[in-house]
């Protein structure tokens, strides 16, 4: 499989507009409060009847300090005592949800995100993992993909050893940028020594995959300063990179109002940074997975993409397309069967539901036949840059050219621009179209027209 990318400035400028990241289809904007506890239980029953492995996502919302760019659902506090009642509720939710899923269903994927999961003490993390093992069928060996997001400022050699002992075998390190002026502008002071000590400790303890998170488009960044950060990280050769485009949306995320908009790099500078990133990473031997992600050619993501087995969910790219995803904790989103569901976003409401013995689901959406069809199309394109009309026709009993006549007509301009190859057999995304894969997927999104202003720009 050709996993290369081509940077075409003129095309990128022409197609740079707002759109979803497609960690789900329909997107989370379609979740509504007409879907609650009863609907969720119904989909769990259908899921158990179908069987198959599970994926668990745990949201740990606490952070010691606020990073001004952050758009995550977090609670900023230096008082570690705040974690105790939340952990009590989370363990109760694990017990409630675990009782609803067949115990023999193996958990092939597990992820702790946040916030800062290592805000918890070792004793608290051990309690959380022990409770999970009590109520769900976790692997006792390293076959599962058990990952955690860590802030190197909140982590040391001892913590890494403890995480490995608890069963984690993949780790993602938040970094964003090493430049001291950028760090000061976004209120995240973090040294190279801290970061690389954690990376080296993870390797020493036998973590199977290491990922570094970077963000381009932060205040005071230039192509030269970001290149320096990237070169310093490349010297340590993590298995994966997640390099995100900073979306400045202060009307939605209050902490972003602390950023001086005059310091943000211009669109032209952001494009220079993006082009530099793609060049340096491909020169270093990494392949472009898609949607800001790069990996070494022998990494599981890159292998899964070449084998046509890559998937995308709320945590990003995944090798476990066969798993139903259970969201646990405040604001978590899950996907069980043909439905998406989300827990309460506020701690007080989450606490009230748990205290009353109710599942804390407060909204969701049930997918209809058209949703499932479009989800399959979008997933194939965003994961594999390739779509066989015949496979979709066989799976969904449709005639692709008839069902998607309007969409195919809209794709002709992208074909003419060299973003895709398009014929009667299918769609092949060309190297020039891979950075713009969101645009191609957007053609198949029936909900997009009325919601576009709520998404970040694709580049």
TrEMBL record:
Subunit and partners: Monomer.
Ranges in coiled-coil conformation: none
Catalytic activity: coproporphyrinogen III + 2 S-adenosyl-L-methionine = protoporphyrinogen IX + 2 5'-deoxyadenosine + 2 L-methionine + 2 CO2
Cofactor: how bound: Binds 1 [4Fe-4S] cluster. The cluster is coordinated with 3 cysteines and an exchangeable S-adenosyl-L-methionine.
Keywords: 4Fe-4S, Cytoplasm, Iron, Iron-sulfur, Metal-binding, Oxidoreductase, Porphyrin biosynthesis, S-adenosyl-L-methionine
Pfam families for the chain: HemN_C, Radical_SAM
Subcellular location: Cytoplasm
Ranges where the Radical SAM core domain occurs: 48-284
The family this protein is said to belong to: Belongs to the anaerobic coproporphyrinogen-III oxidase family.
EC numbers: 1.3.98.3
CDD domains given in the database record: Radical_SAM
Transmembrane segments: none
Signal peptide region: none
Full protein name: Coproporphyrinogen-III oxidase
Role: Involved in the heme biosynthesis. Catalyzes the anaerobic oxidative decarboxylation of propionate groups of rings A and B of coproporphyrinogen III to yield the vinyl groups in protoporphyrinogen IX.
Cofactors named for this entry: [4Fe-4S] cluster
Any one GO molecular-function label of the UniProt entry: coproporphyrinogen dehydrogenase activity
Biochemical pathway: Porphyrin-containing compound metabolism; protoporphyrin-IX biosynthesis; protoporphyrinogen-IX from coproporphyrinogen-III (AdoMet route): step 1/1
